[in-house]
Amino acid sequence: MTSKRLLLGTGVALAAAVTASAPAFAEVSGETAYIFNTFSFLICGFLVMFMAAGFAMLESGMVRSKNVATICVKNIALYSIAGLMFYLIGYDLMYGIDEGGYIGSFSLFWSPDDAAALAEEGATFDAGYSASSDWFFQMVFVATAASIVSGTVAERVKLWPFLIFVAVLTAVIYPIQGSWEWGAGWLDAEFGFSDFAGSTLVHSTGGWAALMGAIIIGARKGKYSAEGRINPMPGSSMPLATLGTFILWLGWFGFNGGSQLALGSAADAIAISDIFANTNAAAAGGVVAAMIASQLMYKKVDLTMALNGAIGGLVSITAEPLAPTIGNSVLIGGVGGVLVVLAVPLLDKLKIDDVVGAIPAHLVCGIWGTLAVPLTNSDASFGGQLVGIIAIGLFVSIASAIVWLALKFTVGVRVDEEDEVMGLDRSELGMEAYPEFGAGGSQRM
User: Fold this and answer.
1) Does the N-terminal or the C-terminal CB of the chain have fewer CB atoms within 10 Å?
2) What's the average model confidence in pLDDT over 135-150?
3) In a domain, 396, yes or no
4) Taking the alpha carbons of 109, 46, 309, 228 in that order, is the dihedral positive or negative?
5) 310-334 b/e with 16+ CB inside 10 Å = b?
6) Which of 52, 59, 102, 101 lies closest to 78 in space, CA to CA?
7) CB neighbours (10 Å) of residue 240?
8) CA 424, CA 422: separation in Å to the nearest integer?
């Protein structure tokens, strides 16, 4: 099993393989493959970065209007912090690991070596890609994991303690577990664990961190009554949440397609095309399955279930978006959509308050998608996949719980009850997202 980063330099080799097997294709030079591989990283990285906007809009629509400005601040801040932390320590910690190892290098301040490729006379561009494009593509994945946490613990977590948690998650927790597979660490070398684009390494990691936060911080005031009643807390804007979901769906093409890690040959172009088709099919399957399941369970179609069904389908296919057929992808995504509908009421029974449904969509479907890999990829085994899921789940859960508890017993992680009732926009930011309609507004259109 080859690590994610080690695959980055395969564009030239893939081009040569295609030329050998299909003489109709002209041979691709090392520089041409380098350009196309780099271009793929940058374009797909742009798409994944745009997912930050999708998370911000989805979460803004799912929280109450008195917390919308705060959730926007958290989303733009967490993206920025993730980038700085991955530059400062995360990248080398994730990819500076010995093959079969457990942890990478704690070197500070990653710096690219692209200038060397241009300075070398007669350069062959053997690296296959620009180092900066590699760093950028990997960085936007880190931010995605942090975004998952934001929505779950919304409406009651303090701003700065949350951002401190994000800093630790993106600098240390995410890179260490990611190195075990994508950095050619022990899960990759010893167990053949396979996670193509991050059902577990990104989405379940964010989900485990979110679950620990939700448990330690507790539910929103009034969400669960003493009598066991669950009180719905409708979000501020379903159109905004729907827009956010469509943006995430679009960004996922970069998320999964870019994880092919090369565009230097016809084989790579075909693979990316297949990945796009399978990704789209899984999301569609997730939506339809979630709608049917919610109709059967609640006698009506729930829009939030349909939205999270799309995300659940996307997360489910992320662990292996290349090997399945389109039909397989619909089924894999469809199972994810059903799991979302089943997991939401289960969390409520356990009194775990997940504002946006991120734990069902990212954690539960991330586990399912990772377990489903051997169904279409014969190189993976159920045993190896299970070991990876358990190992990463335990590490991320324990590490996240330690950080959340340390924050809770030092600076505190939850806002005061009065501030929570008033809304975090006014208590944390001193402003409102919709001032005309707020408590102090004129109620004018």
Assistant:
1) C
2) 95
3) yes
4) positive
5) bbbbbbbbbbbbbbbeeebbbbbbb
6) 52
7) 18
8) 7
CA distance 200 to 33: 30
Count CB-CB contacts under 10 A for residue 197: 30
Contacts of 401 (CB under 8 A, 6+ apart): 212, 216
Q: Which residues contact 305 (CB under 8 A, 6 or more apart)?
A: 290, 291, 293, 294, 340, 341, 344
Render pLDDT for 164-208 as a digit per residue (tens, 0 to 9): 999 999 999 999 999 999 999 999 999 999 999 999 999 999 999
Q: Is residue 2 part of a domain?
A: no
Structural domain harbouring 395: 38-99+126-428
Report the 10 Å Cβ neighbour count for 234.
Answer: 9
The answer to whether position 17 is within a domain reads no
Residue 26, φ and ψ in degrees, nearest 5: -70, 150
Is there a domain that residue 361 lies in?
yes
Q: Of 302, 373, 372, 313, whose CA–CA distance to 344 is shortest?
A: 302
For residue 266, the domain's CATH number is: 1.10.3430.10
Angle at the Cα of 184 from the Cα atoms of 201 and 16, rounded to 5 degrees: 110
Residues 362 and 148: their CA atoms lie apart, in Å, by 8
Report the domain count for the chain.
1
- Residues 404-432 as b/e (b if ≥16 CB within 10 A, e otherwise) read beebeeeeebbbeeeebeebbbbbbbeeb
**HSE, side-chain direction, 13 A CA sphere, residue 316:** 36
